[in-house]
Design goal:
- It is built from three helices and three strands.
- With 79 residues, the chain is α/β, with parallel strands linked by helices.
- Strands 2-1-3 form a three-stranded parallel sheet, with helices on one face.
């Protein structure tokens, strides 16, 4: 992640929104990645945090992907 912070520090990436895709068994790791990137100035979309109560999960996830400029996919054996 040092490379991302270096790029951000140079002003190359500003207000980049990132969708973080993860298996529910890795939600704590995904949450930490989102918090790290948000402290560095990135905007992150991550489920379930960014899904409004009562919303259709599939629709909200599709919207989240469409509205982001980048995607981080966290692989795991449980997926």
């Amino acid at each position: 992640m040092g490379c991302l912070l270096s790029i951000l520090g140079q002003g190359i990436i500003q207000n980049m929104s990132i969708f973080i895709s993860h298996h529910s068994s890795k939600s704590e790791i995904a949450k930490h990645v989102a918090e790290y990137l948000e402290r560095a100035g990135f905007q992150c979309w991550i489920a379930p945090r960014d899904i409004p109560p009562g919303s259709d999960w599939d629709d909200e996830i599709s919207k989240g992907i469409k509205n982001c400029k980048a995607l981080i996919l966290l692989f795991c054996g449980e997926a």
